[in-house]
C-alpha cells in the first residue's frame, strides 16, 4: 500500500532519480577508462558533391565499443561527457585519431579541398588550447591544416561567450575551417551568421524529411539554401536517405549532401577502399599519366 501513498510515490521518484544519477556516474567512470584503453573508434561518413557524386569530404563520428554492453552510440554518452567535462579528453582523442587517419589517406586525396570534419562540443571550445593541440597533431602527422574542419552545432555556436568566439578565431587563423552543424534546429540571426568565421552550413535532416512530397517544405528549404548562399557559405544537407530527395535538393541549388543514400558511417578500412576506388577512377586506366 506504500505505493499509492504520497510517501510511496516520493520514494519511487527518489529511486528513479537515484538510478539515473548512478547510471550517469557509471558512464562517467567507464568513459574515462574507455578513452584511455582504446574502446573508442571512429567511423567515417561520406559527404558528396551532388553534381559529380564524388566524395568530397568525410565526417568522423565516434563509437564506443563497451566490453560488456557492446556498441554504444554517441547520443547515449556525449551529453554525459559534456556535463562531466570528459568531452575535452574525448575530443582530444577524436582529433588525434582523425588526423592520423588523414595522414594515411593523403596519397588517395587528389582534391586539395577534401576535408575531414570533426564534431566539437561547446565545452571543448571554452577550454584554452584546442587550436594548439590541433596544430601540434597536424604537424606531428604531416597533415596540412586545410584538411581539417570543425563542426559546431548552431545552438552551441549561438551560445558562445567571448572566450569561445576567440577560440573560433584562433582555429580559423590556424587554417582549419568551421562549419555550422544542425542548422535550422536553433535560432540564428542572419547578422550573426555573417560575422562568424564559418564557410559551410549543414542543414539539419529534420528540415528535409518531406522535401519530395510537401511543396511548402521544398519552398522553405530553397529559402534556407538561398540564405546560406547569401552570406557566402556553402550548403550541405544531412539525412538524405532517398534518391528523390537528392534530386530535389540539387534542383534547389544545394551543392553537397550527406546521408544513408550516399553511404552510412563506415569503418576506416571501408572508407579507404571507397577513396582508393575513387582515386583510381579519377586517374584513369593509365594511372593519369
Ligand atoms: P551530427 O554531427 O549531426 O551527426 C549526424 C548524425 O546523423 C550521425 O549520428 C549520423 O550517423 C546520422 N545520420 C547520417 N546520415 C543519416 C541519414 O540519412 N538518416 C539518419 N536517420 N541519420 C543519419 P551519430 O553518429 O549517432 O551521431 C550523433 C551525434 O553525436 C552527432 O550528430 C554529433 O552531434 C555527436 N557526435 C558524434 N561524434 C562526436 C564526436 O566525436 N564528438 C562530439 N563532441 N560529438 C559527436
Ligand atoms: Mg556533425
Ligand atoms: Mg548534424
Ligand atoms: Mg544532426
From TrEMBL:
<keyword id="KW-0472">Membrane</keyword>
<protein>
    <submittedName>
        <fullName>EAL domain-containing protein</fullName>
    </submittedName>
</protein>
<dbReference type="GO" id="GO:0016020">
    <property type="term" value="C:membrane"/>
</dbReference>
<feature type="domain" description="EAL">
    <location>
        <begin position="24"/>
        <end position="279"/>
    </location>
</feature>
<keyword id="KW-0812">Transmembrane</keyword>
<dbReference type="GO" id="GO:0007165">
    <property type="term" value="P:signal transduction"/>
</dbReference>
<keyword id="KW-1133">Transmembrane helix</keyword>
